[in-house]
Amino acid sequence: VQLQASGGGLVQAGGSLRLSCAASGRTFSYYGMAWFRQAPGEEREFVAGITASDGSTLTADFVKGRFTISRNNAKNSVYLQMNSVKPEDTAVYYCAAGLGAGHLTSPAQYNYWGQGTLVTVSS
Fold this sequence. Notes:
By secondary structure, the chain is mainly beta. The chain contains no helices and 11 strands. Strands 2, 4, 5, 6, 9, 10 and 11 form a 7-stranded mixed sheet that branches. The protein has a 4-stranded antiparallel sheet with strand order 1-3-8-7, with no helix packed on it.
């Protein structure tokens, strides 16, 4: 599976942004998908995930109520809708695909990664 993330950019605090991740291959629906982010000098952290089995979602507490993950298996794509963004949301955002069961929140559990897209939130 090859992943291509897009949609990052510069946004003002309180604004919205929608990230997209397009996957190649015909087995996209088998993969659990997630978004991680990494700020300069920080470790990569889990933001949100969506399972392959039933499409259930898990969102990190620090973005709960603001960010929403979704997927469209017909389009081999996963999305991250980011609302009410804050300067601390500034990071490179990565999409990832993994074959494990349930919600996978560790980077080590993911097999494939996109190249990342930079989100910068100005105050």
